[in-house]
What we know:
The chain is mostly helical. It folds into two domains: 1-182, Up-down Bundle (Growth Hormone, Chain: A); 191-387, MFS general substrate transporter like domains (Growth Hormone, Chain: A). It has 16 helices and no strands. It is globular, with a radius of gyration of 20 Å. It starts with a helix and ends with a helix. Mean pLDDT is 84; it is low at 187-192. The chain crosses the membrane at residues 43-62, 74-91, 97-122, 134-154, 160-183, 204-230, 242-260, 267-290, 296-317, 329-348, 354-373.
Amino acid sequence: xxxxxxxxxxxxxxxxxxxxxxxxxxxxxxxxxxxxxxxxxxxxxxxxxxxxxxxxxxxxxxxxxxxxxxxxxxxxxxxxxxxxxxxxxxxxxxxxxxxxxxxxxxxxxxxxxxxxxxxxxxxxxxxxxxxxxxxxxxxxxxxxxxxxxxxxxxxxxxxxxxxxxxxxxxxxxxxxxxxxxxxxxxxxxxxxxxxxxxxxxxxxxxxxxxxxxxxxxxxxxxxxxxxxxxxxxxxxxxxxxxxxxxxxxxxxxxxxxxxxxxxxxxxxxxxxxxxxxxxxxxxxxxxxxxxxxxxxxxxxxxxxxxxxxxxxxxxxxxxxxxxxxxxxxxxxxxxxxxxxxxxxxxxxxxxxxxxxxxxxxxxxxxxxxxxxxxxxxxxxxxxxxxx
Length: 387
């Protein structure tokens, strides 16, 4: 018989896989939304940015939501909320209603993301780091499935919007798993040793770490969002080829996290961020300069990008001790802003007014900035140790 602890693990992994599938449908459907709603790249960028805006808002409110409703109600409400948001996308009659529906989707996915992380954190407190990394691998698995799922839906004669509607099947599975598991509640933390928010926000290290994660998540979401339009409009590739390239990005992303778990402690957090940022930047630059034959280097860069955010979070926890979790929250919020401002607005604007290729060169610059800021952080840390 499956123990409740294992049921909770399966529930959390299913939630995260659903998150990976639904959150990455946009990578494939972008060109079809442009056609159906007669949009330019800027408007598509603004539209998709509302997923991140909804997510950002609920990250801010997550502590209050758990405190007010508890984990059980939050999971139940989250399932219903996501079903409504997916149905709203399918039924959207115009651009503005679709924009609002994507806002609902971003906030709904964040609700369930919060639940899944807490389920693993509570159930596996003794090996929390290992299990949360494993949890995020299931997000990567969902990302691998997403483009093929969209391609299958289109080949069966349905529209891109049906891929969102059919995703409600995953929520039904989550509901069934929820009913068979005893979900624990969470008590409010009584930890009083954290530094105040005002004090932390004045710390230059907090600002630099937040900027690093802003760039890291911005680059990651830029590739997810704009790889399909680049392959379709610039290189005129088929839907099957586009599916392959997007899936390859998530495959390498998943492999990258597995490899990082064996290497990061030996190389060191800061050095590992510097190495992977440099390698990813060179890979994307080579793909853009080398042309069509080298394009595969863009999805292959996922093996380096995968380790960026988890390693930055580990560096934050190591640097700020008891206040680390709070700083991780600031950095994650900055990352969500990056997924909106950099991935949707800035890149969308550059794509419209210069070219999509130029938009990808912005990612090379962003990764170079990530490398330089991390190098500065490392130098500062070494000087502190010397003093």
